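Sample pair:
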Amino acid sequence: MPEKPNIVLVFPDQHRADVMGCAGNPVAQTPNLDKLASEGVLFKRCNTNSPLCMPARTSVITGQYVSEHGVWSNNINGNEKGPSHVRSIRDAGYHTAVLGKTHLYTHGRRHTDEGKQILRDWGYTDIHELTGPLASRAMDSPYTDYLERLGILETHRNYIANHGRVMRDNMPWDYPACPLPTEAHLDSYTGREAVKWIQDYRGDKPFYYQVCFPGPHDPYDAPAEYRARYRLDDLPLGIIDPPGEPMSPLVSFFVNAYQSRTGIQNWTVEQRRLLKQGYYGKVTLIDYWVGEIMKALEQRHLLDNTWVIYTSDHGDMLGERCLLQKMVFFEEAQLIPCIIRPPDGVTGWESNALTDQLDIIATLLDIAGASSSIKPNGRSLIPQINAGPKNPGAHKGKEAIITEVFGFSAVRTERYKMSIDAKSLQPVELYDLQEDPEERKNRVNDPSKAAVKKELSERYIQKLIDCRNEQLFLNYLEKDRIPRELRW
């Protein structure tokens, strides 16, 4: 057995923090994630560093803020020759492997195999790359090759093409269940391949294995049997009303877009719950495969020498606040799961420490003993985990979290969340999370909060601006100021 521990990072796409039983959700059916949390530490206030796929994923691999790496949207490629925690862990003696959706480069290739050199440059040795469900309509991968061998690729692609129809007809809640057998669903394929990889691995190096499930990202194409596990009346509605005035330009853009394109403001209670039924079903499908991955590790007698981490790139608004998907700084999009299980497990406990994805990267580097030129804007969580729940620092986290997208930057402290237009540096949102934990009242124009805005700007935002790659930011503003993300 290798002296260094193995690492398995399970990284689904768009899993919001509160859709897990262990997070206190009484409806979510996630027995395997709950078990994982019962043997590890659940960081309940873990934040994404960008509520959008490519910016978040580039922050994850580089350990940098969006301002530093410059990937402000899904239309910009990061620098695969630049900092990479995966490359650092590889150079520390690990076999680095990835399965699933990486989304570290823009689409446009015919097959994911054509992107292998990019992923090798990022530091991956063993590559089994897939796309998300929507991209699989046009881009091939080992998954579409698998469907073609089964003779059901056309069925899948016709079904995915139907997503455009339901969006154009203002009915995103009216997306039917996946027509493929459950075992042929994209997330089932991912889970099954992950189990097989663990069963087959016989290398002499410790492994760092990323399992990047494409779900529960929309379309919410859960198989019928997984949708049926959720009664509509049981599903929470969340906040139905749109955000109040003043809206930031970012929020206003998406509220107006979704209202005009989907009629979301007029959806019935049943329609809102239908949307969530498909999402919750996909979460439960992924949860099943998390259980199978843990069984495979146990059967290989690897659990006593493997760290297992479950997290995501960002959350999902799920129709709440008249918003879909992500791309805003509300908690539904910003908070992500973070469960860390040490080798052999511990008696599970929860930490309320304010954490983010960059802390997870620092933790991974710490586990691997990787000496690196990377200076992630995070802190390793290992000392906190080892100290346990009774330690005075069990719930002590960062002073502030930074998250950014589309030329907007936000700082979140224990009490406040403020976002700014990163070009003008003018605040556009300010929420007092102590008085208004649901973020219903934007107090950016409140004269009594002028000193708060000044302190947040000078103490946190200015440091961010000082480290910003100004040329990449200007390139983004010239090319892609909000956004081209609504594509139906």
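The first strand starts at residue 6 and ends at 10.
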